[in-house]
Structures are given as structure tokens and as C-alpha cells.
Amino acid sequence: MNKQRIAILVALCCSGSAHANDLNWDTGAWDLAHWQEGGNTEYLDTDGDSVLNLRDEDDDNDGYADRIDAFPLDPNDWEDSDNDGLGDNYELALGLDPNSPDSDGDGLLDSEDPFPLTKEPVKTIRYVNWIQDVNNDGISDLAIVYQDENDVVTASLYDKVNDELIRSFRFPGTYDSFSTHLFSDKNSNLSQEIGIFGLTFDSESNAGVSSKLIIKDTLSSETIDVFSWPGNWNDPTFVVLEDLTSDGIAEIGMQGQFYIGDRPQLLVRDGASGDQIRRYSFPSIMYNSTYVQLSDMNNDTIPEVGMIGVIKRNNKVQVKVIDGTDDSNNLPAINFGNDWTEYQWLSLPDINFDTVTDGGLYGRRLSSSSIQLFTKSGIDKAGTLGIYSWPDDLLSHQPTIVDDLNFDGVNDFAVGGFRESAGRYQLIIKDATDRSETLANVGWPNTLQSPVFHDVNDIDGDGVRDFVLAGFRIRDHKFEVAVKNINNSKVENFVSDNNWKEAPKIVPTPDITGDGLPDIVMYGYDELGTSILEVLSFN
């Protein structure tokens, strides 16, 4: 097991033995000025007293023996009172405080601070994800988005193989809150794009909040697109959409409740030009209405748009279906009963092999308490492709789509939760093409507090799919990531070195450390409120 952190300094270690290439064996110029150019300081004469450092008890001749000299090769410094890596005399010359490792109090050591006399705003990690290789070393990289105490948002791209910063850039403006999103290449330079959907409180606007999406190129740091919406919608959020114009570029969506009448609306911008091309709108007839992307249901090659919610007059769950090419053309709705709770719409793979992706309503049925996924064909609203069920005593249930486990070409369905009757946490995986077939039942003991499940690919490289249950250990409040494979065999129990204030967010990634195996990234706050990040690797 290997644990890594984002490195601030890279330590350079020197060997204690001498090699021929440590010395400058220039036989044509064998004199003091030349032979000292080697890299091994033991074979130099730093103070020019004709005694090699190897045998000199005071290499820099400053009056302090090497054994008590914090800087044995610097005649101007011999003490580092605050252990920040800088000598006391050096700090005094710069106007720094030799008794404080952080003279400006910005959280950065003086030796690591490019502006040690200027207090830098404290930055908090808001978002972490892996991105496609941007430094051409063949390994995926890590994108970290920060927000400082002045609400400035920046992104840093890291090479975790060498623990090096690749580049950093700032998103213009300041935001009261924001979400972060990755996009496929929009400017044909073979790199992903990263964007933030930011909200700014605006007391003079109709809804009190305006929104903006800013997309930047991860390779050049240039701003690719800026999409702005006025403050006319309450609770605006970003919606991931597919290509609705057949130009090969995904569209941009913003949904919210229009300030007049709380009408749920979805405004769609062309992903290429930025022009508004659709406005989907309904009266306020549903509770918790949310727009979702559907498949192509009318066979015109363009996917449709849906709005799911609970109808206020009868408490039934319904998905309104609207033509992806015509926002005024309402297609037949998809109807469900009134006995659903804890529900959500899931976009599913093509489970009936008709080349069209499918969908389904997932949640708990009030009538039976069982957990169900009621699947629907991507082209036919009638009937169902199958009702997938999980035990009714599965508490705190969490659905996920996992990679194809039985090699039939279709990703499978899994639900994890605490199985009350067994007193254990279980992840039960169903064959997506055969609802009666359980592919795996992975279990963990009840030793973690409020844990979450994650699919982490094959983290140990043995060819078997792995999953994690992560949470605070009940016995000592240490954060544990317990890994098991689909055969219900233990793979590894990672125990974090950090004392987390609250459960960190977990991001499974492909290999970002260069060992050929997937990794796990955790980020959040430690007990002192400091924003931290930790990388877990099997090797």
C-alpha cells in the first residue's frame, strides 16, 4: 500500500560515496578552480583551507562545527531557529521573522512562499478529478480546483508521477458557489476542457442570483467559451446535454425556476456558437422537477429532453418528454405510480440490444418497501424491459452502474447499502440483461460509520473487478477504505494517515502515479480545518 500527497517540495538525496563522475577529471586543467566543480561536496574544499570537506570539521569556516551547523556549506548562516529551511541571518536580511516559519501568516512556509512578506489568500480544495494526459508522459493527470477566501477560483493540473505542478490558471470573476465540469475537446487540440458553473448573488436581479459557465482549455489555459444567464431563475444548475444539432458538439444547458410563477425551465445554448437554441418550459405542476437527457424516442437521430417530478394533483411520478429538435413539441409522457420514494431517473445502457440507450426509474416502492429499478425502452414508453429488485431491508441504498462484469457488452446494475437482516453492508450486482441473475454479492462487516460504495476498477491488477466501502471506523474514528473484489475476497484495507474533520470525498481514478494500476484520491478538511488531499495506491 502506498499513500501519497501533493508535494510542495521535491527532496533531493545525495549519495555518501564518491564516483568518478562526481569529480571533474580534466587532466588539462587540474587545479583548484576546476576540480571543485564536481557534484559531491565531500570532495570539495568549500572554505579554501586546503582541507577536503570530507576531513574538515568546519567546511565553511564560519566558526561553527559542521555537527552543530544547520548550514555547514554557508559561511553566512549556521542556525535555523524556526525550522523553515532558511537561515536566521538570511531571514533578517530579507526582513523576515527568523522565529516564525511563516512570516506573513498565509499558511506557507517562508522557504516555499514566493512572496514570504505578502499574505496569500487561503485556498480550499473544492473539486478534484483526473484528466487525460496533458504533459505527454502517457499517464493521466490530476485537476484540482481551488477557491480562496476572496472567492477567486483557480485550477491546478498536477503530474502525480513526479509530484510536479504542470500549470495553474484562474477563472475570471468571483463566485458565491460553483460546480465544476469536464468537457471533451472543443478546440481540436486533443485535450480536455474544464469549466465552472458559477453563481453570483445579485440583489438587483429578479431572482437574486445570476449564473455563468466558463470553459478553459487544459493544455493552453485559454478561455474557450463563456456562457452567461441573467438573474431570472431561482436555483439555477448546469445540465449535461448531448448534441441536439448534429454538429458533433454537446450543447450547454441551464435549468431553474423562472421568477414569475416558478415555472421550471431549461435554456439550451449551442455548444459551438453559444446561441440559445431551445427553451423548454412547463407550468409549476410538479414537485422536485428536474430536466434530464433522454434517448432518441421518435427516431429522428436527435435525443429528446425529459422533465421528471411528482405531479402535484395525484403524487404520481412522471417524465415529461419533449422533442430534442423542437421545444414546443411534447411527446407522450412516461408515467409511473404514486408509491415511489427516494427516487431518481437513471440513464441506462442499451439493455435490449436495439442500439438505443435505455432509462429507468430507481427508488423504493412504498407498497412493498423493496428497492426497484423500473426500466423503460429508449424508444417505447409502454411497458417495461424488466423490473430489477433488491431486498427491502437494504437501508441507505446507493445505486451505481458498474462496468460489464459478465462480458456480454452491457454495463451492469448495482445497489449498495446496509442489509438490516444480515447486519452487514452489501453491494448486490445484477446482470443488466437478465434481471433474475445476480452476478455478485459483496459484503463488509458493520465496522464503519455512514460509509459509501465506489467502483474502483481493478486496483490490484489481478484481473478481477474491485469495489470499496469507505467511512470512519467506529472504534477509533480513523478513515478506512476497505477494498474487496467481486468474488467477495479482501484486497486491501487502506487506513488514512490524516485525521479528517468529516468524511472526505472519494474519486476513483485510472493510473495517475505511473505504477500501471488505478488509484484513489480523497480530499476534504482535517480536524484543524485545513484543506488536504491524499492519494491511495495499491503498490
Describe this structure in words.
With 539 residues, the protein is mostly beta strands. It is built from two helices and 32 strands. Strand 23 and strand 24 form a beta hairpin. The protein is globular. The strands form eight sheets. Strands 1-32-31-30 form a four-stranded antiparallel β-sheet, with no helix packed on it. A four-stranded antiparallel β-sheet has the order 2-3-4-5, with no helix packed on it. A four-stranded antiparallel β-sheet has the order 6-7-8-9, with no helix packed on it. The chain starts with a strand and ends with a strand. Helix content is 2%, strand content 44%.
Question: Which helices and strands occur, and which strands form pairs?
Answer:
Layout: E1 2-4, H1 32-35, H2 88-94, E2 123-131, E3 141-148, E4 152-159, E5 164-174, E6 177-183, E7 193-201, E8 209-217, E9 223-229, E10 233-240, E11 252-258, E12 263-269, E13 276-281, E14 286-293, E15 305-311, E16 317-322, E17 330-335, E18 340-348, E19 358-365, E20 371-376, E21 386-390, E22 394-402, E23 412-419, E24 424-431, E25 434-445, E26 448-455, E27 466-473, E28 479-485, E29 490-495, E30 505-509, E31 519-525, E32 531-537
Antiparallel strand pairs: 1-32, 2-3, 3-4, 4-5, 6-7, 7-8, 8-9, 10-11, 11-12, 12-13, 14-15, 15-16, 16-17, 18-19, 19-20, 20-21, 22-23, 23-24, 24-25, 26-27, 27-28, 28-29, 30-31, 31-32
